[in-house]
Amino acid sequence: MGEGETVAVFGKFTYTSVIAKNTFTSPFAIKATVKDGLITYFQFLEDTYASAASFRVEGEWTIQQDADNSKRFNVSANS
Q: Which domain of life is it from (predicted)?
């Protein structure tokens, strides 16, 4: 969709990490500005947490949501 020089695109990609062979699907959004037929601004948003997790093959991550230590959770390679 677009209005004037601003364009927005929404969708989803399925990625596979080459070495670990982990696959995940991520929603994405793109915002771009086009002037005289050229892209002058480009912003790409995706689920970077899922992308990073696709490279994990073993071990566990401890995730802390905010300053409250009780709001931690662990993520293993098999979750």
A: Bacteria
Residue spans of the domains in the chain: they are 2-76
Cβ contact 72:65 at 8 Å: yes
Identify the CATH assignment for 2-76 out of 3.30.565.10, 3.40.710.10, 3.10.450.50, 3.90.800.10: 3.10.450.50
65 phi and psi angles, rounded to 5 deg: -75, -35
Please state the pTM of the whole predicted model. Answer: 0.66
> What integer pLDDT is reported at residue 5 of this predicted model?
96
